[in-house]
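Q: I'm writing a short explainer about Fatty acyl-CoA reductase for a general audience and would like to include a description of its predicted shape. Could you first generate the structure from this sequence?
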Amino acid sequence: MRWHRFKMVKQNMKSKNVSSVSKYYAGKNVFITGGTGFLGKALIEKLLYSCNDIGKVFMLIREKRGVSAQDRIKSMLETEPFARLRNERPQDFKKIVPVYGDLVADSLGISPEDQEMLFEEVSVVFHLAATIKFNEPLSVAMKVNVEGTQEVLKLAQKMKQLESFVYMSTAFSNTSLQRYHVEEKMYPPPKPMDEVYDMIKSNDPNECFNSEILDGRPNTYTFTKALAENFVVDNHGDIPCVIVRPSVVTAALKEPVEGWIDNWQGATPVLSLIAKGWVRCLYGEKINNFEIIPIDYVVNLTIISGANCKKSKDVPIYHCCSSGSNPITLKETSILYTAESVKHGYNELPLPGMIFSKSSWILFLMTLIFQVIPSYLADLFLYVIGKPARYVKIQTKLASYLDTIRFFSSQSWNITNDKTRGLYSSLNSADKKLYPCDANLIDWKQYIPIYFRGVKQFLAEPAQKKRQ
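A: Of course. Here's the predicted structure. Afterward I'll give you a sentence or two in plain language.
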């Protein structure tokens, strides 16, 4: 009896030290859209690295700007996030199988032979592909974000081994000027689908829609992601399905490389210019939540949710965000980010810092004094020493960019993450260590400097080398 009890305890201890999430993916084949994007690269790397025994990773990919799909994958695997796999297990790259196609084509433009292969072999689908441009014409955003999702789901419904369909949305799909508290639940669609297509048909080619027409959404990106969510929920049928909603995805906290980031999107451009001292005024309030999340937390939640997906009429929704449980304000972020900038001598003007205001007149005056006039003076100095002017051009571009993010800097949301935290707490100790995704684990005083150093190392310095 004692021996039996000892054996049971030993087995329980052993199970806590083995990743059940990684074990779930053992021998399973997955299909990924958006695999060459920021999130896609990190997801593929993490699946290959932490789920050692995973089967094939089918990756939807097309030729782009004259570069073949095969060459695009080859170039991708030579980048920073795949360094540890290149060094430790380069043979795992053979698990990546390109599936030639296009998100905006019927049946994703996949050949009948490749479709049959996916129907027979795929167990998990990760649909990440989307256009994330805020100012995308509505017809384009609909084609990619909604109709593309329809095609992926249609394909998934024919997969004989399918156990999990993970749809990547955004935490801002249901934020608006009227809704400041967003829960992990489904919200009604912003407009009926036929009404949206009528809007497209009756509008001018530029398709410029304001927030009022988009049901309180600030842009066509968040609007179409809300529509796509509703389509998935209404049409998933018997497919086990889950929706992941990340907030603004930023540099890696730890994986695949500390600080890794590969794009100038989201909050990164304005934070970089704040760090240099060229942006000192922002429309908003200093106490507003700055809703960001490291990319590795998003990837980890995506993998965990895929492994815990169950067949149900209800579609679980998980938020990967920080404001609901571990918020950081705009002011706190700017202080930490500029402090790291000064420490590394990154600032081009002395004493970088931020002024926040919701008064248009104060903002205009402060911008003129602290940004516009210094830019003209700086360009005059460059002219005198024989170098090309550039700072006024930066301010011009910046004004347009700040208009697109004004909705986000001027509001403060509470986006809950209780279900995500509950899912994470249900994991065993091995999985908690391998797949951290609870925002409460983030120490902002540690992370924001990592974010800065990542932008400097992976974006700013390579861009500067190209200019030289």
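A: For your explainer, you could say: The radius of gyration is 23 Å.
Q: Perfect, that's easy to follow.
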